[in-house]
What does this fold into?
Amino acid sequence: MEGAAASAGAVLRGAGEGIAGDKMNFKRVMLHLFTGRAAVRRVFSRHTLAEIERAIKATEALHDGQIRFAVEASLELMPLLTGQSARQRAIEVFSNLHVWDTQHNNGVLIYLLLADRDVEIVADRGIHVRLEQAVWEGICQQMETAFCAGHFEAGVLAGIHAVGEHLARHFPARGDKPNEMPDAPVIL
It folds into this structure.
């Protein structure tokens, strides 16, 4: 195990993080290695996932936008060792889930990287140009605060409602509209 830790440290040092960064990254690597899908199931029960799906469906009735929620237990080893951030991963997930593929370019992904307790919101260009990044960051911070207190369901529901309010302001519902994406949460 000592050799594996030294190898991980060498890779991290090679990424230009330095000694202090090695300790922080080693802690992050260990956290990710020991945070598996079971952690997601503990935090997001079937009931909680159903509540999240209902909240997305309810808020989408008030606007023409599309909301996706995705949670991932941890990063895979290589992206982790190369220093992939939750933001970088969220952008990948946004693309992989085709959140960008909406009629009005107003899809929004709420992404949670559970091992880091990090929330990222990625908004498509139709809504991104109408809101400052600080708005999205404020929603993320509120959700992260709830998560630190162990209130995962309440944090996600509050985030969905906050995103929905902004979408309703900028893309109000216009009669009968198709649901362009599934409302069910995605567990990666």
